[in-house]
Amino acid sequence: MAAITNGTPRAILRGLQDLSGRIVPPEREEIPIHLPKIMLMAAWGPETMQLLGGAEARTMYGDETFDLRSQFANHQTVLHNVIAARANKTMIKRIVPDDAKKARVQLALDYSTATVPAYERDVATGKFRLDDQGAKIPIDGTDYAGYRLRWVLREISELGAGVPSDSPNSVNIDATPGTVMPVLEFEVPHFGAMGSNLGFRLSAPTTDSAEALDMDLAEAAQATIFRMQYVTRPDALASASAIVAETGEQFVDFALKAGVIDKYDI
């Protein structure tokens, strides 16, 4: 009972207690009386100890890890499958060979100086005018000093070692030496060949894109907005599908300029 010491009329708000639903008591993690420690060769997954059930283990390490016909199968695989078939949990430690590698790639920009032609534009929209074949229409005799650029994706052995280098295949038709400038580097989280089935799609959306550019963000940031989508596939012959971000979206917009935050604080 509340002790009311003031006779002045007022509302005393103690909140509501909804008894329409049952309160779910917290449950402790159940540790089996017999908890085997299994050392597995795995296609994928962390190297730290994991307490897992059968379905959880397959999600973390991949179905191929527990296939007795796969390259990862050994006597420990058989032990795990027998225990998991009886709904028992196991403590799993992934063993990684000394020669295992992580998939790593570097996204670099290959650029060189060049003479760039001018093209006709529509006065009303400012967009390039196209001919019957869909090609841009050059303005005869009008050229500018500029750059020719292309994105280059190449495999790397370690992160952070990329430095500018001469272009092996210059994109400049004038044969001016080009430069390859590292921009972004990517590394998968775990060792294993499954890393080769992860990838990304990089684009720079415009107002005409299917998912249009957020012009408010671009103007506020005063920077080019890029769009990144990560993808995965079950094997090399399968089509890739998008990995959904924590925000529930299939892609993330970002800028290479430091400190760019959108209106959703992302």
Give a verbal description of the structure.
The protein is mainly beta. The protein contains 3 helices and 11 strands, in the order ββααββββββαβββ. The protein has helices spanning 54-61, 75-84, 215-221, and strands at residues 37-41, 50-52, 90-95, 104-119, 138-155, 165-166, 179-187, 198-203, 226-232, 241-242, 252-254. Strands 5-4-7-6 form a 4-stranded antiparallel β-sheet, with no helix packed on it. Strands 8, 9, 10 and 11 form a 4-stranded antiparallel β-sheet that branches. A hairpin with an 8-residue loop joins β9 and β10 (241-242). It is flat, with a radius of gyration of 29 Å.
What would the keywords be for this entry?
flat, 4-stranded antiparallel sheet, mainly beta, 266 residues
The coarse silhouette is flat
Number of strands: 11
Main sheet summary: 4 strands, antiparallel
Order of SSEs: EEHHEEEEEEHEEE
- Distance between the terminal alpha carbons, to the nearest Å? 47 Å
Structural class: mainly beta
Q: What are the SSEs and their pairings?
A:
Blueprint (H helix, E strand, L loop, with lengths): L36 E5 L8 E3 L1 H8 L13 H10 L5 E6 L8 E16 L18 E18 L9 E2 L12 E9 L10 E6 L11 H7 L4 E7 L8 E2 L9 E3 L12
Parallel strand pairs: 1-3
Antiparallel strand pairs: 2-3, 4-5, 4-7, 6-7, 8-9, 9-10, 9-11
